[in-house]
Amino acid sequence: MVVCKATGVSKRYGEVVALDNMNFSLQESEIHYLVGVNGCGKSTLCKIIAGVVAPDAGELEIEGVPVSLMSPNEAKRRGIAVVYQELSLIPQLSIEENIMLGIEPREKSLGLVDRKASTETALHYLGYFKNVLPLDEEYVKQTVADLPIDEQQIVEIAKALARKPKIIIFDEATASLHKQQVDAFFSILRELKSVGVSTIVISHKMEEITEIGDRVTIMRSGKLVNTVAVKDVTGDQVIHMMVGDKELLERKRAHMDFKDVETVFQVNGLTGKRIRDVSFHLKKGEILGLGGLQGQGQTEVLLALFGSIPFEAQSVELGGKPVDLSTTVKAMDHSLAYISGDRKKAGVFSERPIFENIIISSLIKFNRKVFSRKRMNEEILPLLSQIRTTFGKLSDPANSLSGGNQQKIVIGRWLMTKPAILLLDDSMKGIDVGATKEFYDIMHTLCDAGMSVIWHSSEDLELLNNTDRVLVFDSGQIVDELVGERLNEVELYRAALDSRKKHIAVE
Amino acid sequence: MKSKKETFLQFSKSLPRKPYFLSMIILIFFFIMLGFIGRNYYSAYNLTTKFRLWMPLLLVALGQTFVILGGGLDMSVSSLLALVNVVTVRLLMSLSGSPFQVPIAILAGIGVGITAGFVNGLLVTYLRLPPLISTYGTQIVWGGLALRVLHQSGGEVPFSWYTVYSSTFLGIPFSVYLLALLLLGVYYLKRTGFVTQLKACGGNIHGAYESVLPVNKLRIQSYMLCGFFASLAAICIVAETVTGNPLSGSGYELESISAVALGGTSLAGGAGGFLGSILGAIVLKLINDVIFFAGLGVNYQVLAQGLIIILALAAGGQLTKQNTSRAQLKRRKKV
Ligand SMILES: Nc1ncnc2c1ncn2[C@@H]1O[C@H](COP(=O)(O)OP(=O)(O)OP(=O)(O)O)[C@@H](O)[C@H]1O
Ligand SMILES: [Mg+2]
After folding, report:
1. Best label site of A20, A289, A314, A456, fewest CB within 10 Å?
2. Residues of A in Cβ contact (< 8 Å) with B191
3. Can you list the domains of chain B with their CATH numbers?
4. A504 has pLDDT over 60
């Protein structure tokens, strides 16, 4: 049975056509993947189904009944829940209050919120993640603003589940999740399927589709390309449908020998919160990966080097001279740049125009009152179009962009500061396959020209395919270094887990 | 089950993280100071009189808290006080002799307050005007209306109003009972989840909309509650002064907002509480007394008042910052 059907849906934002006569249908209890490059209209389609955005044209049917005017309220009544890409959480409220917002269980007599039932329900829906969260009553009383982005994402998922939906939409819900958390998420998808709930999942992680998807709908520039059963297509075919005829080459960085190259950056005995005595060097033009299990101090190392969090070190040398990286401005003065994957917290100024978002860091770094529009037009805009950034006007606010395109703006901003050492912290979050490949190319080209990169990623393959050397982290320490032939998944997992075993043995 | 002692210990541990912590400290400090320098400050007579004089600000600050939590601001409360004041007094005068004189005058005053709040709410929700500007506009309108109703101070109010308002029962003044009753009402609204939903609107309005909260309704209700509290404040002023005054509320808009901010409520909306606003309002009132008894020259009183407010707000900001890093530290230890 078709539970949700959109026919001929169109939506324009000024000049930008977000959806163009799009058709979509969702079967009962299927896991339906919705894919396409950044800005092709996936989120817009979901918002129309959820009643948050009104379409310019087209019809919507839920369980065979036409809906003339969809509103959030109408969608809620028809059992539609959404996990939004840009998260709909209220930062000031607690986890529990967020999950139960608008669906508070009430005592019969006075209409008061039944606090016990409320806590229990919140814990129940978070319970799917009990292996990856320290769940208890105290946990759900925490303010959401204090949570890291992955846990916020989990809260948002629990919030949607608590609405007991018949149709549930996950807009890039796995983008900020770690491997283990994704596994927990998949078990939710399976359970939902088994009880007859229909799900729409948006993701840029192609391997997910084959692992758990039933059908996949591919979109391009607001139009439907095709809807196919997952078992009938390969991942490559899906990607080809997404990007059209453009060639997508699987390019791997050649192994290079950095023995005789000069060392540009040398760190000894770096210690701080979650970082224990980390020492490493970085050669000119080298791409150094920070790998291992998630949350083992990789992000903190990058933040410390960029002056965002306090640290102590025996020595930090840049080009052979000791440097002070204790504040962000100092780090920028020494030509470091840091691109965070958490664009909401550390990236986009969402109300400000796109061009301000691009130039802001350069203005600060070069201490200018005016910026060179010429340089932006000649150097950065071509780069942005190479990673396929689509936007209306440079003066539009950043939040008018699709999630992935916002992230690309942040990348553009930091490349504009001409960094000598680029710190990447899961910077590809929410960016589609095609654009990601282009970004890899840009990195390789810039490194050939003398830039060096320290790259942390939660995608192991991204690290292994693009770096010259990977430092494996565990509990804030470097436990192994992978180079040359050892740059493969088996070695990476072994290195990350081996030290675990030793730890357990010691304790 | 937790024992009482444990609950108390837990509470006192969490105290420094409460939004009203700072105003509480200042309040205690002021009270101790006044014990030394304020001649006979703690006599029953002085305290009941003081509390009666504080009452209007306490009420307006409570009402303002609803609006600010919901992400708004009500600049119009000052002249709303005046409007309700003169409407009540005019009705008392024209109905004099009727058995329904008092209830009609009071209900009409409250009705005017709630209606004015409703209008404010419509302006900021359906017409999408920024709260600061639109309620500044209505401030002028209410003020103009007040002058139409009563163009200068005056009017007869039965003296029984003052007798009742200044009476005590079991040694506790009437105004304290009234405040307690209202706080009970506020507590009820908290327990129904209304306040949480309001905070959601103030904290992230897009998120609240996507969570299918009736955003406009909630925000309009917050302005209506503010109007309600302002009208009660106006009636208290009528009872205290036993006369009508079309300019009676001036200054209350900014004073109430300062009280709310001092109480630890974020002016950006979404976080804070009512107890803080009460404490903040009392602090504001005590500043005057402390300065007075400290023997500061009249010329310096206003200056000192301003400096203390700024200091208190700055300290509050520092405290919030510390709490954030403390919460993050706690997480780190757990992981
Ligand atoms: N509020 C808005 N105002 C103006 N333009 C918008 C708005 N929302 C979306 N758009 C535009 O509509 C197009 C489709 O955006 P949408 O968010 O649906 O993309 P998406 O497929 O979800 O991309 P991503 O993978 O990057 O999240 C984009 O070009 C975007 O710039
Ligand atoms: Mg999107």
Report:
1. A314
2. 110, 112-113
3. 20-265+276-330 (1.10.3470)
4. no
